[in-house]
Amino acid sequence: MGRGMPHGHEDSPSLSSLTSGLAAVGPSLASCGYAILDGLLPPCFALALHDEMATLHQQQLLRPHRFGFKSSPSAPVRIVRKPHIYEAELSEPHVREHAASIGTVSELVASAAGAAFPELQLSPGPNGEGTAVKLQCNEGHGGCFPLHFDNAGPPSCRKLTCLVYLNPSWAEGDGGELELVPWLAPPMQIPPLGGRLVLFRSDLVLHRVLPSRARRFCFTIWVDGARTNEDKLVLPESRSAREVCAELGRSGAQRLLSRAVYAAEYEASLAACMGSSEQLCAEMVAQHRAHVAACDASGPLAKLVHAARELKRELAHVAAEVAAGTTAPIVAAAVPPPPPPPSDAQLQPATRAGTAGAEAPSVESDAEAHRTARAGSSALTVRLSACACSDSLVRASVLVL
Ligand code: FE2
Question: What separation in Å is there between the alpha carbon of 196 and the centre of ligand 1?
């Protein structure tokens, strides 16, 4: 990177300390799709980042979050607001001018991630290539984000999401937790504590932001990677839908099924985010339901969706039994285990009540994802053509070849 390289804050972490810190969570990132790091940013530096963000917001350099929504594929795009959310791109000169420390740490984190996770083939280049940084303020009042993937499908090349939280006085009850929903595993809630760094795979980890009742600052660094979105959804004759679904946690192909598998959760999160705009919310919910219905009606895709729902239910039972002190070895052997509990005592297990949701439409993520699947014992080859985005209706057509 180095876009008008800002002068670093004197307490800025070194590239070597960040790289070794990130490398230490490499196994967690590889096995669970996410990792949480506390203490990598010196407290003084984290405070400097917070002050930069607060000043930017005070100077009204963060703008209301807007996104495009189409109620149907043929409908015109409407630009609508996401309530209580303000954002800016670091690449904007007038923003970067006031965000020297954020610029410095963004470059360092992207470079450190590239060095720490060679298997991801990340591509942070000079002058900010292969990296995007967004600054965000959630004003509270229930501001939140519905379930989504940061990489909704081609042409996005986002491979790794790095979130830096800047809320030194966050307290229980403030809300605004990040909720990660690793494929079929129980969700987990992560408080947005000051100086906390959360990493997760942009193409693999479904997530949302829970309603915030206090002002909340963060910035996100997205790093592109080679060979992103090359996953294929393959159902060979020798394998059942259940076996294939159990392995989708490591494949971006899970995005084809996500809305249908997490239908109720998507819908509830959409209502939490957009509920104040009654008509718009109703249209989004209708679109989501139509998408789910299309998935349920499309032969091989429906078979996978059904198997995934079943595994999800079983894993929820496993989690409940583990919490109660018992185990369920049959399921544990059949599917990847749920992520280990975080070591940080402040990480909260997600409660099912009030944590469901759907996703917000956005033109930028309205990308078509194409997958090829080989289905069933008849070796039927199908092409799944689906809008794997957070937003628009997955035009889940299944074309038998
Ligand atoms: Fe996100």
Answer: 16
Q: Examine residue 132 and state whether it is found in any structural domain, yes or no.
A: yes
- Tens digits of per-residue pLDDT, 170-199? 999 999 999 999 999 989 999 999 999 999
- State pLDDT tens for residues 97-149: 999 999 999 999 999 999 999 999 998 877 778 999 999 999 999 999 999 99
Contact between residue 259 and residue 358 where contact means Cβ atoms under 8 Å apart: yes
List phi, psi (to 5°) of 119: -65, -20
308 within domain boundaries: yes
pLDDT at 9: 66
Number of domains the chain is built from: 1
Concatenated DSSP letters of 134-152: EEEEE--TTEEEEEE-S--
Tell me how far the alpha carbon of residue 189 lies from the centroid of ligand 1, in angstroms.
Answer: 14
Please report, for the domain that includes residue 273, its CATH number: 2.60.120.620
Query: How far away, in angstroms, is 200 Cα from ligand 1 center?
Result: 10
Residue 392 has pLDDT above 80, yes or no: no
**Residue 146, domain member (yes or no):** yes
Residues 61 and 379: their CA atoms lie apart, in Å, by: 56
For ligand 1, the distance from its centroid to the CA atom of residue 155, given in whole angstroms, is 17
How far, in Å, from the CA of 62 to the mean position of ligand 1? 18
How far does the centroid of ligand 1 lie from the alpha carbon of residue 368, in Å?
19
Q: Is 338 helix (H, G, I), strand (E, B) or coil?
A: coil
Does a structural domain hold residue 9? no
Q: Give me the helices (H) in 236-351, please.
A: 241-246, 255-261, 263-274, 278-296, 299-323, 329-334
52 alpha carbon – ligand 1 mean position (Å): 22
Of 84 and 2, more confident: 84
CA of 16 to the centre of ligand 1 (A): 27
Q: Which domain holds residue 225?
A: 15-400
Q: Which of 214-228, 289-303, 380-394 shows the highest mean pLDDT?
A: 214-228
Which pLDDT band, with edges at 50, 70 and 90, does 8 fall under?
low
In angstroms, what is the span from residue 237 Cα to ligand 1's centroid?
36
